[in-house]
Amino acid sequence: MAQRVVILGGGTGGTLTANRLRRMYRPDEVEITVVDQDDRHVYQPGLLFVPFGLTHPEDIVRPRARQLHDGIAFRQSPIDHVDIEADEVHLSDGSVLSYDVLVVATGAVLVPEETEGLTGAGWMDKVFTFYSPEGAGALEAALATFGGGRLVVNVIDMPIKCPVAPLEFCFLADWYFRERGIRDRVELTYVTPLDGAFTKPVVSAHLGGMLNEKGVALVTEFNTGEVDGADGRLVAYDGREVPFDLAVVIPLHGGAPFVARSPGLGDELNFVPSDEHTLQSKSAPNVFVIGDAANVAASKAGSVTHFEGETLVENVRRYLGNEPLEAGFDGHANCFIETGFHKALLIDFNYETEPLPGHYPNAVGLPLLKESRLNHLGKLMFQWFYWHSLLPGRDIPGIGATIPTAGKTDATPASREE
Amino acid sequence: MSTTTIAATDLELSDEGFFVHPEQWTEDMVPELARRDGIDVLTDAHWQVIRFMRAEYFEKGTGPTVRVLGKTSGVSIKQLYQLFPKGPAKIAAKIAGIPKPRGCI
Question: Are B65 and A200 inside 8 Å of each other by CB?
């Protein structure tokens, strides 16, 4: 009898896992079912470009089912809960899916309602987010008619998806207003709960310097307690205020709501605690987690999900075959950071190694930690790879799952960040 | 790294002032640690947060963030800022003798 793998979520992680497993097993060996509440697969890195008119929401959304290989069942329904004792997924339409292995790939959701005032007066009028297709589209219209004033970009709290995206937004906003000839009338401010521009010290110093060069003010250790859209101000828990005419807010994130309804599955933010190296959940041995849904100390980003895929699929295979798991994932992340003016920089790091200068993936590759046109082209080209290579579960030539050291100027592991 | 002496114990602290060896911490160090971060009066609520931070650290390997503290410690985020005005997660972690909460990456 075929073993049953149920994959919750048809985004980056769920899709590439399903396709890799389908190639590994015949349908009579393993039945694969992917569940998602809708049939809209968003290329999330594209959201950053929508507010600046560089792409459009309809150009970055494709049907989920079409990204899945033949022989993979797609069920469109919200998930009510998972019963990890009974190995069952209960869907909102009342049906029940039994599994031998469950893969949680339901990502992170935005929870703007957790911040006082954020979805109140001014929401989608002078307070926006570009972290959803709807928000990014509404922000495009608002930016197009923005004649000048104080534009504030605020990360409410970590964790967020793609932690560099809010900084990229600042860089692109600087470029956008220069192109429109009104940069001198726009005051740009980046407001973050962190004690610097970014979490990793080397990158934080580099990106902090770039904010400064581009005339973006930096406000650190600001824990937003309230967004007052009517009066146009962010209010921190410690009483500090930052006034704005237009606010771009990255709301709090959480795991998918069904996690909260599934006893024993998730943590207090509805992410699923998992082993950092095997990606097996700490909730049950036959539950694995990939991508933003996991509580691991890696960035919530598509590149991380992509690199996790290889380890995750191998460990599902080992679990089904009663073999010991492989501790294969090293926390590898790789991010293009768009800096405006048709340039980008690239960073590459993992659990142990700080982002380093040099070239990726080897000495003749793309420059690391340095602005270049080549990196900008790399970022644009990546969308093609995403649909045609990454989701189908093919390896991208030269891009391995673990961090490369060739081409870096000093690849000795840095001390672990706490 | 730096060293300091509190309650007759030599302690190793990180550059930012967090304990490197949480097992060196004892409750009688708390008043002095709190004073160094500008907290002169310790209430029961301070102690509740400090003990919660340590318990979380030893269970999960990292101290909680402010948001998680607000959801799980029984003390609201607003109250947490009244107790530890310079930042609840960081200051309470220092006083509780645990490393800097990892937050997120």
Answer: no
Q: What percent of chain A has pLDDT over 90?
A: 75
Rounded-to-integer distance, Cα A287 and Cα B64, Å: 25
Give alpha helix (H) positions in A180-250.
201-213
The answer as to whether B84 is a domain residue is yes
In tens, the pLDDT along A247-259 reads 999 999 999 999 9
Domain count, chain B: 1
Q: Look up tokens 């703007």; give the residue.
A: A112
Asked if residue A59 lies in contact with residue A77, where contact means CB atoms within 8 angstroms, the answer is no
Chain B residues touching A221 at Cβ < 8 A: 87
Q: What interhelical angle do A201-213 and A165-179 show, nearest 10?
A: 20
Among chain A residues, the shortest Cα distance to B14 is held by: A418
Residue with tokens 């690391």: A368
Per-residue pLDDT tens digits for B43-94: 999 999 999 999 999 988 888 888 889 998 889 999 999 999 888 888 999 9
SS3 B70: helix
Q: Comparing A267 with B3, which gets the higher pLDDT?
A: A267
Peptide bond into A159 cis (omega under 30): yes
- Rounded to the nearest 10 degrees, the angle between the axes of helix A12-24 and helix A302-320 is 40
Predicted ipTM of the assembly: 0.81
Which pLDDT score is estimated for A411? Answer: 46
**Closest residue to A225, CB basis, from B62, B77, B103:** B77
- Return the residue in A199, A200, A223 with the most chain B beta carbons within 10 A, the one to mutate for interface testing: A223
Which CATH architecture does the domain made up of A3-107+256-320 adopt? Answer: 3-Layer(bba) Sandwich (3.50)
| A112-252 shares the fold of A3-107+256-320 | yes
What pTM does this model have?
A: 0.91
